[in-house]
Specification:
Number of helices: 8
Radius of gyration: 38 Å
Structural class: alpha+beta
Distance between the termini: 107 Å
Helix content: 55-70%
Number of strands: 6
Strand order of the largest sheet: 1-6-2-3-4-5
Strand content: 5-15%
Shape: elongated
Order of helices and strands: HHHHHHHHEEEEEE
Largest sheet: 6 strands, antiparallel
Length: 345
Amino acid sequence: MASHRRPKQPSRTRVTVLTTAAAAAVALSANAADAAPREKLGKDEVKAKVDKLYEQAEQATEKYNGAKEKQQKLQREISTIQDGVARGQQDLNKLRDGLGSLATAQYRSGGIDPSVQLFLSSDPDDFLDKASTLDQLSGQQVEALKKIQDRQRELTQERAEATEKLKDLAATRTELGAKKKEVQSKLTAAQKLLNTLTAKEKAALATEQARADRSATQRVDLGDAGSASGRASAAFAAARSQLGKPYVYGATGTASYDCSGLTSWAYAQAGVSLPRTSEAQTGAGTRLTRGQLQVGDLVFFFNDLHHVGLYAGNGQILHAPRTGTVVRYESMDTIGGPFMFGVRV
């Protein structure tokens, strides 16, 4: 007779042990995969990737600069509005106090009906003077009420405007924080890549960069191109005095600069106020082709216009390139992105 017994089930203890063993095997397998040596990038490959990250950091930097400039502008506007509201409230309080004084004066002089005053007055001319005063007080009250109503409407509008700008300011601060994080994340990623190099490779890269900076900050052949104007010449001279200063994102001098920080500072020394960001600076004057450029003209690169420098002549520009470099001369053909157009301020 066939047995109808159920097959013996593994105990819970045995299942747990098997499960734990399987999990351990998977973990060991994953750790082994992680531990497997990854292909090490060569020095030149690391440099190329780092340069790309620095370019992306510069893109984010210009967005950061724009948000920071907007924040500062909003703060100034809000401060002006709030000052106006405070002064308006003082004016309104004075108008209300004046209206109260008029009402009190009218009550005191007009407590007796004017027709009764006529009968009681021994001097009709005196009554007419009093009646004239009462009419005048009434007119002043109407005028005072109108001023109060107008001022109240103005204050309501100003407070509403301040409220909207405060909302805009909060959003701008959020954007500013996001862009700052983006810049820092790109720089951190670049540093991690650099840390994969050996000490010898790092030293070789540093030597190459120092040699490039040294040769690019010395006088190069700029040809005999004339300056675009006296202001352009002054701006270029100011920028030239900053050769060798390091690139730092968000910096406007004089210890360090980013690209638009250098151009805005240089033109400020010539008495010209430029917008803070490279994209905004494109609207500072007349657009030019490469063949129209003269010394001191602004020159813009990359499709999104995130890089700007000053034309130096002979196909060279003077600019603050990117993190890890200094203010220097460089050929327009080695910037890393296409030349878009120039602008004569």
